[in-house]
Amino acid sequence: MTPGRPVPPPLGKPLVVSDETGEASLPTPAPAPSKPASASGMPTLAAAYGATSAGSGLVPLTVARRAPKEDDVEIEIDFCGLCHSDVHATRGEWGEQNYPLVPGHEIVGRVRSVGSAVDDFAPGDLVGVGCLVDSCRECDSCLEGVEQYCERGNVGTYGAKDPRNGGAITQGGYSTSVVVDRRFVLRVPEGLEPAAAAPLLCAGITTYSPLRYFDVEEGDVVGVVGLGGLGHMAVKIAKAMGAQVVVFTTSEAKVEAAIELGADDVVLSKDPAAMEAANRTIDVIIDTVAAPHDLNPYLRTLRLNGALFQLGLPPTDMPPVSPGTLIRRRLSYAGSLIGGIAETQEMLDFCAEHGVVSDVEVVTARQLNEAYDRMVAGDVKYRFVLDTKTLQPASEKADV
Ligand SMILES: [Zn+2]
Ligand SMILES: [Zn+2]
């Protein structure tokens, strides 16, 4: 580890928020565990929460999960993280969606049953599913193990057409179960607290992958722009890699929080003098801000051969990057998208070894809509996670 501030222990125990609806604070009874779908060869009806239109908010739904095929793993979901992408997708902010839509791609649970050809997972195993459930498996990206960059388009965990399953639209993890091909199932080390590990499957790998790609090691200085779900994981993972971490924030209120997470330094990005003082001090910047913003002041904090990875996808154009700054310091301006399956497994093992998990606030199904509003307002430290035991029992008939 680098000299300087010691890394505080991760807040592995989730905070359970009381239900503010005034109803019983205990969740509705957990749905009775259904029989392994593989036993019957029929689809299983799973309880879920999802959107029926762009304006519906999240409502109770019932999803038909396919009977596991020979390579499939049937997972009883325990927790699912709430990602900003879920809000955009369910509200139709990223274009046309197929409704009803059950979001969720930060899934942790236990194997309920496996198909006849699965010998690497067994019932009871603690497993995870991230943003991908399939890809073409044949293109150069897939053969290289970077399935997220599949040239024919990866199959997302929700809202995506699933060619190997008759073109059905995938449905995500705000649900009591899911069936996924074994190639896209991750092993979650038992040392990781399941609720706090769930956000590693998207927020964790999205920040781990560019840090690994840049080969961050002890003594490097990593800048993190934005301190939300992604940013707080970037701080923890970069510290665990041995880097010094500098957080850039527009908010004075976040200075203390950044230090608590383990940051060695905080720069108020609205203060030109502070930004000037940071000139040529950083090796690599992980920019997690999804709103349009000017990158040039950040690029000027990079040293020779530095790089800025942009992870947030702004809805509109950003101010142009100055070629002069790039040229005069041989800087790289790059993007990065989640991670492949092998790298996601590597990240989970790394996090278990270093005791890295997300800071989470566990919510019930009835709190999901309020949680979405709080996410949009930036009022969460740092990730909401749905406890799927609070989903109402599945109905007799599937909605989707
Ligand atoms: Zn996500
Ligand atoms: Zn491919």
Describe it for me?
The protein has helices at 37-40, 84-90, 140-143, 194-197, 203-213, 229-240, 255-261, 272-277, 296-299, 323-329, 341-354, 368-376; strands spanning 15-16, 44-50, 59-65, 72-81, 107-114, 126-129, 132-134, 155-156, 161-162, 168-169, 177-181, 186-187, 221-225, 244-249, 265-268, 282-287, 302-310, 332-335, 360-363, 383-387. Helix 12 links the parallel strand 19 (360-363) and strand 20. The model is unreliable at 1-33 (pLDDT under 50). The chain has 400 residues and is an alpha/beta fold. The N and C termini lie far apart (49 Å). The strands form five sheets. Strands 1, 4, 5, 6, 11, 12, 19 and 20 form an eight-stranded mixed β-sheet that branches. It has a six-stranded parallel β-sheet with strand order 15-14-13-16-17-18.
Q: How far is the first residue's CA from the last residue's CA?
A: 49 Å
* Residue runs with pLDDT of under 50 for 5 or more positions: 1-33
What's the β-strand tally? 20
| CATH homology superfamily name of the largest domain | Medium-chain alcohol dehydrogenases, catalytic domain
CATH architecture of the largest domain: Alpha-Beta Complex
Give the count of helical stretches: 12
Bound molecules: zinc ion
Rg, Å, rounded: 21 Å
Strand content: 15-25%
Reconstruct the topology from this structure.
Layout: E1 15-16, H1 37-40, E2 44-50, E3 59-65, E4 72-81, H2 84-90, E5 107-114, E6 126-129, E7 132-134, H3 140-143, E8 155-156, E9 161-162, E10 168-169, E11 177-181, E12 186-187, H4 194-197, H5 203-213, E13 221-225, H6 229-240, E14 244-249, H7 255-261, E15 265-268, H8 272-277, E16 282-287, H9 296-299, E17 302-310, H10 323-329, E18 332-335, H11 341-354, E19 360-363, H12 368-376, E20 383-387
Parallel strand pairs: 1-19, 13-14, 13-16, 14-15, 16-17, 17-18, 19-20
Antiparallel strand pairs: 2-3, 4-5, 4-11, 4-20, 5-6, 6-12, 7-8, 9-10
One zinc ion (ZN) binds next to loops.
